Amino acid sequence: MFNRRIVFGAALALAVALPLAAQLLPEADAVFSEGDPDEIALGQLLFYDPVLSGSGQVACATCHNPRFATSDGVSLGLGDGGFGLGPDRRPDPQNMPENRVARNSPALFNLGAAEFTSLFHDGRLEADPTRPGGIRTPLGAEMETGFDSVLAAQAMFPVLAADEMAGHYGESDISRLVSQGLITGAGGAWDVIAARVAALPEYRARFDSVIGADAPIRFTDIANAIAAFVAFEWRADNSAFDQYLRGEATLPPAAGRGVRLFYGKAGCSACHSGQFQTDQGFYAIAMPQIGPGKAASFEDHSRDTGRMRVTGDPADAYRFRTPSLRNVTLTAPYGHDGAFTSLEAVVRHHLDPIKSLENYVLSQQATLPALPGAVDDWVLTRPAEIAKIAAANQLSPVALSDAEVADILAFLKALEDEPSRLGIPDSVPSGLDIPR
Prior knowledge:
35% of the residues lie in helices and 3% in strands. The chain folds into two domains: 4-30 and 238-413, Cytochrome c-like domain (Cytochrome Bc1 Complex, Chain D, domain 2, Orthogonal Bundle); 37-71 and 106-233, Cytochrome c-like domain (Cytochrome Bc1 Complex, Chain D, domain 2), CATH 1.10.760. The protein contains 19 helices and seven strands. By secondary structure, the protein is mostly helical.
């Protein structure tokens, strides 16, 4: 079993002899590429435009909104068939969602940094130099070329997901094509989405300056523009902690104590390492499973085995990505399924994961929009399922006082940044309503 106290025992001993910054702290050395201003501006419009969804009512910004620090403020969101934003989002009685989105909407900060070579809670999308396009996706080789980056490839997934942007079968031309598995090629879902965009004169003119006037607009061009915008807009590397790392500022006393705990006794940085507090790895930490899980339509369960769904390796059961902690104080709820709305609660979960799992109460911890017929506690009401999650746990208990927990929270506060640059546009070329 992974034991962070052993890992950090030696590090903490060294910290006694050497200054903290010299021994334990990461370097402020993240690498970002410069984007094309025209492509970034184009991507901003596409990110906020519902034209990419089957119904024309859901944009990327519906579930990744600046109002909620690039997430959506709920444990598990409602995509197609919902209206409103964040905790106020409700199902449309005339177009009822079939289910909640299965996983918590992740924040978008610093995804343009070179170290982010795989994405999603289970890492199912990742850079792979053995593939023709240099990217591996679970959707096959025909969907792995034409993207500028892993971040760009990520943009294709929501538009192909019925519960997110594609919509129910029969609801639109895109939802029908997606349901039939007709994605690439002439007349496929990508082709239809690209044609929608190309038919709007402002988009055609803007793409002319990015890909050339004679080049047809492909779905991958749309995804590349969205990625360029996300990488530019939500670069967040000037927090109080970054300034401290660069020797430009000092931290408040409580945050300073929190740094020493985070990189020392508490062992947080065993996984939350590097400038953005993630080692990009996957770990099982007995996170309570709520919501529909990740099951095929023919499977009668709501479990989510995480990384194992990607690798097929039973040793990866219930392992999920180490999230970056940038702006973590602003991006509640927490966990792959948003099981914890309180940041303090999820910090305390890490101190004794199995006890926390066994004592978890859904109604007290999660934030879930009302959805008639939703079964959110399937796993929680089955002791055998709880036992499986507990058995996979890799964290050993750590004892911290209330004051020490408060100091760690003060450090996490020092990771806040104000990265948004372009903001929300006044309008989009489709004329559709912007999620704001």
